Amino acid sequence: LSRRSGFRRLSSDAVEMVYGPVQSRRLGYSLGINVNLSMQKICTFDCVYCQYGPTIDLISSPDEFVDWPEDNMLLDEVKKWLQRILAIGSKLDSITFSGFGEPTLYPRLKDAIKGVEKLRDQYCPGVEVDILTNASLINREDVFGALSEIDMVVAKLDAGSQETFKAINRPAKGVPSLDDIVESLTRLQSATGKVKLQTLIFRSTDPSFRDNSSFDEIERIAEKARTIDPVEIQVYTVSRYPAEYFVKPIEASALREAAERMNTIIGKQCAKTYV
Ligand code: SF4
Questions:
Q1: pLDDT 10s digits, 126-135
Q2: 172 CA to middle of ligand 1, Å?
Q3: What does DSSP assign to residue 90?
Q4: Are the CB atoms for 129 and 150 separated by under 8 Å?
Q5: How far apart are the CA of 83 and the centre of ligand 1, in A?
Q6: What is the residue with the minimal CA distance to atom 8 of ligand 1?
Q7: Lower CB density within 10 Å: C or N end of the chain?
């Protein structure tokens, strides 16, 4: 891992910058863009349910990592993939910035988004360009500006209180509070109308760890979501091996109940379950 602190960079032979299209529960057939070519997850969070395992090095700013790919290298790769998809007539619903960690850490995100949207217009007009983000950097002006450019922002909201946010998402030191993140998401949604939320609900088998599946926590999440007033809330549960042993999926019926409760509190049918 090539950080300013001098960590060794591991081989990137097996790391793909563009992958798919993969069939996703929430995004349809999606071509993924991964801006992290190191062999280690780079993230501002260390979520207890993360499918990539624990975040070894938590960072809170793009400056803490130096080995980001050049944007022309990234755009060349996206272009090649779109040409290939067009040639074989493969189905494509979306192009998604996500990948091995938090994509808003990429320092040239705005240019990359604009470049990908230009390629989309050329090769597959109508296909949505979106980003899966934990929203931890949205208070930064550059990140807010980049997110304003994209077709759809799908932002994480797993907690309704600072205490649960810290317990579940385990943010890096320097990440703003949950209230500050919610305030910025509200501002982005009122400026663009292009914010969806993603809420992962799970149960804990460790009695000392309070999960987010309780009635009270669901209500608190819904109160935050009501402030943001998103296009949609994608409510789902764990489907891959989590970072922590005590994290378990909740039943489909409990997930539906949670979404219904959210809709009642928000006052509109925007929470949908994805199982
Ligand atoms: S934000 Fe995403 S990549 Fe980062 S730790 Fe959480 S689940 Fe994993």
A1: 999 999 999 9
A2: 12
A3: -
A4: yes
A5: 30
A6: 50
A7: C
Reported pTM:
0.94
Any atom of ligand 1 within 6 Å of the Cβ of 43? yes
Q: Are 99 and 55 in contact (CB under 8 A)?
A: no
Pocket of ligand 1 contains residue 244 by CB under 6 Å: no
Q: How far is CA 199 from the centre of its chain?
A: 10
- Cα-Cα-Cα-Cα torsion 98, 99, 103, 109, nearest 10 degrees, comes to -80
How far is residue 75's CA from residue 113's CA, in Å, rounded to a whole number? 10
End-to-end distance of the chain based on CA atoms, in angstroms? 34
Helices (H), 54-203: 71-88, 109-123, 141-149, 162-169, 178-192
pLDDT digits (tens, 9 = 90+) for 209-260: 999 999 999 999 999 999 999 999 999 999 999 999 999 999 999 999 999 9
State which residues of the chain have pLDDT below 50: 1-13
Q: Is 55 in the pocket of ligand 1 (CB under 6 A)?
A: yes
How many C-beta neighbours within 10 Å does residue 13 have? 7
